């Protein structure tokens, strides 16, 4: 079983490639959390994987909460791996994730980071087309190596690009982000909205509701996956003052994926 969380498709694309290579099933963490679906049984020899984005040099809170709540039934000693996708570097994301797993009595055999296009348009401009193409090319190669390491069952094997100042970024900046930057208040919708309802359907927190043809954010905080703002086909969703001039990023796989697939 491979559990994934993804706002704009990078982590989903990586999880799908690994699931196909390993012959494992995929499960969306956002949907499992909304359904309170935590009890799962692993078959004999089934591998257990987690794929998710890096948010402020840490795993998304929804992901660590999910693994703490997981109720797994298995026999033997399943192989456990994790892959975090990031725009540049992961800091101590994998260490934090490992601790969350350990709280549930589970131990990671291997952990990897995978650099992919950056979707954090609330803070930065999107990568250029050239940068996106270069990242995809490198990520394809890295993912093949990750798949091979998992197929071979390598244990105590970690390949994570922590980047500079990982201690400060993950230890100091990350908790501040968790407390302050997940607020929905700065979201607003412009007259460009065509009332398609996509934002409501794809919100990983389930906190967008279409009211009189326009999206309304019904909670004060959300997972901050940035699916709504990046995937709106009319570029009608904005966050604060800076996003109007910025581009949008969606992995090609999310252009064709059916909602709920
Ligand atoms: C709220 C937020 C915080 C982010 N923080 C980081 C970060 O600390 N380091 C990094 O390299 N990328 C960061 N990113 C970029 C994403 O980790 C990256 O684009 C990821 O592949 C997106 O995955 P997804 O398409 O599966 O949602 C951040 C993105 C978001 C939305
Ligand atoms: S996705 Fe964009 S266009 Fe569609 S309803 Fe939401 S804001 Fe409007
Ligand atoms: S409101 Fe937007 S950013 Fe927040 S969880 Fe929903 S889709 Fe993601």
Record keyword descriptors for this entry.
261 residues; alpha/beta; Rossmann fold; Alpha-Beta Plaits; 2 domains; six-stranded parallel sheet; two-stranded parallel ribbon; 9 helices; 35% helix; 18% strand; binds flavin mononucleotide; binds iron/sulfur cluster
Description:
The two termini are 16 Å apart. The longest helix has 23 residues, at 129-151. The strands form four sheets. The chain has a six-stranded parallel sheet with strand order 2-1-4-6-7-8. A two-stranded parallel ribbon has the order 3-5. A two-stranded antiparallel sheet has the order 9-12. 35% of the residues lie in helices and 18% in strands. It folds into two domains: 2-177, 3-Layer(aba) Sandwich (Rossmann fold), CATH 3.40.50; 187-256, Alpha-Beta Plaits, CATH 3.30.70. Helix 1 (10-22) packs parallel to helix 5 (129-151) and helix 3 (61-69) runs parallel beside helix 4. The protein has helices at 10-22, 29-34, 61-69, 93-103, 129-151, 166-180, 198-202, 227-231, 253-256; strands at residues 2-4, 26-28, 39-41, 48-53, 71-73, 80-86, 110-115, 157-159, 187-189, 208-211, 214-217, 237-239. It contains nine helices and twelve strands. It has 261 residues and is an alpha/beta fold. The structure holds flavin mononucleotide and iron/sulfur cluster (SF4) (2 copies).
Poorly predicted tracts of residues: none
Report the count of strand segments. Answer: 12
CATH architecture of the largest domain, by name, is 3-Layer(aba) Sandwich
Q: Order of strands across the biggest sheet?
A: 2-1-4-6-7-8
SSE string: EHEHEEHEEHEHEHEHEEHEH
Q: How much strand?
A: 15-25%
How confident overall, as mean pLDDT?
94
Shape: globular
| Distance between the first and last residues' Cα | 16 Å
Cα Rg: 18 Å
CATH class of the largest domain: Alpha Beta
Task: Report the CATH topology name of the largest domain.
Answer: Rossmann fold
Structural category is: alpha/beta
Number of domains: 2
The number of helical runs is 9
**What compounds sit in this structure?**
flavin mononucleotide, iron/sulfur cluster
Note the main sheet. 6 strands, parallel
Helix content: 25-40%
